[in-house]
Amino acid sequence: MITNKTFNEIAIGDCASLRSTLTKRDIDRFGMLSGDMNPTHFSDEYAQMLLLRNKAVGHSMWGAALISGLLGSTLPGPGTVYQAQTFQFHNPTEIGDTLTATVTVTGKIAENQIIVLDCQVRNQRGDLIVSGEAKVTAPIRKPTDIGSPYATMEIRETETFNQLLAMVREWDPIPTAVCHPCSEDALLGAVDAARQNLIVPILVGPRQRILSLALALNIDISPYRLLDTLHSHESAEKAVALCRLGEAGALMKGSLHTDELLREIANKERGLRTASRFSHVFIMDVPTYPRPLFITDAAVNILPSLEDKVDILNNVIRLAHALGNPEPKVAILSAVETVNQKIPATIDAAALCKMADRGQITGAIIDGPLAFDNAISKEAARIKGIRSPVAGVADICLVPDLEAGNILAKQLTYLADADSAGLVMGAKVPIILTSRADSAESRLASCAVAVAYAYWQKGELVKNSTLYSS
Hints:
By secondary structure, this protein is of the alpha/beta class.
């Protein structure tokens, strides 16, 4: 329903706000649309060279554009015509910053229906980013409901992780053991998450090496505990110990090899084992799919057996519950949708579905085998005559093996412009498993998912806090 506030309905002191989190996609699109391809917006290296900043900064006018959007969509709303606007720019914006634009009516000029508004944009820390004054002609009539002109637009903004970040940022941050943050990406990822109020990092690694890196990057790590180690093996051992002893509620991989960290986590005497097998879950926010899509396992279990797949399923179902989906729909993927003894994944799928039927796997609606097109496209399922409560609306895709899952997740990232987060499940605490190729947004999203799961594990998840709120 499109609505507005007419000149006569507006009073001095009326205000409205709009909140948005800056993503890499926002920067790319704004640059292309505006023609402002200043490399300091797209490259950390250029930002360091030309601005003496550690990270690339968003376009100043992106924050200002939020004011324009607020005026045109909310106050006064549709029918508003810009007359004049002033801007002052106070602080830069980085990827992951959440900006709140606020406009407040300060004056009315009756003879030409002019509304004067004070405009401010602040980030999540309350820092002033943009200020100014707008003069607009307010609408003089209300719109009639003839249907939204936006209904056929094809671009869907992926807001899943923005919503999650905004949600968990209001909670107490989780103490997190950051294992061997001895590379630029690893250390900046932990510090960024701390700045976003997601984690309280405990840096575990060679003290002098980490201090030298922080100095080179011009970042202050003095607020964070630093636990000295001699090498990556000791870093893994001490980081895991912090989690086992309850001093940390999550574990974040740094610049050591994944196998090295997982080996320590799996240690029978001093690790973080539970009754479940470890498995990895990608949470994908795909612009062309209307809901978060979980993919498992694409990083830990290479050729999982039927027994392994039961644990992998139980792990991902728990994560879906933690993120607000009480009964996720699980598609067990294969190349075909019929059981074929020559394709082992179809046999496993049939067995898993029967186990679910008999209550051996609970908390989800499970079907398979399903080819990927049938899992995510109702039309593909209809054409093939597949009747299933999962087909076309899958929340979770259980892949046959690591190669299939890894290829699928990377295809969605690089060809479908999907955002992603990833966790290793099945341990006593969530494990944030990041890659050197991960974007800053992906690292923050993974931290946010870990925080939400850690709260859920403790039974402290806030009611109605969910990825599925929209």
